[in-house]
Write a structure and sequence with these properties.
This protein is mostly helical. 50% of the residues lie in helices and 10% in strands. It is built from 7 helices and 6 strands, in the order βααββββαααααβ. Strands 1-6 form a two-stranded antiparallel ribbon. It has a two-stranded antiparallel ribbon with strand order 2-5. The chain has a two-stranded antiparallel sheet with strand order 3-4. Helix 3 packs across helix 6. The chain starts with 8 loop residues before the first strand and ends in a 7-residue tail after the last strand.
Length: 183
Amino acid sequence: MRTEEIKIYNFEELSVEAQEKAIEDTRNSEGYLDYEWYDFLYEDFHEKLEEIGVSCKTFYWDLYHNNFYLDSPNIDDIKKFIKKAGAEKILILKNLEVEKGEYWDEIEDGLYSAGIVSEEYRTDVYDSGIDELDEILTEKLQEILNGFLNSLKESFDYLNSDEAVKEHLIINEYEFEEDGGRY
């Protein structure tokens, strides 16, 4: 029988080179970030959508290609959505008239019942306004989506930073061999 004795180190006891190896090995390991690291961001995003009267079944993102997709987005509260987008100011200040279309009745009723527009704004509607309103609402939703995608990227980048990996190793009290390999 043979008995070997090896020294085991915590992260802070390693040399600088061994710490760098431990950080790099951990960052590239299958288990690191193999959990729902974005859960709190997901909840914040749903709250932001709720604040503007929008919902969706779920969403997908591709951080490498800078893409973001909503699955079955729906405007649940058109009055809230228009107000949060700042579009009611344009409707009032510019006397924006909108072509009656598929969603106009719901928009019109929401604006009227909220006191944002008067009865006279509900009467004559033309082609000129629908594009401007659509652009404003689309920009607001795009702003929220881009903000969420940026939050995801920032969190992902931070979690892969040397600082975050080092913190992960220390907090979880991992042990290492002298060269920085995990024990």
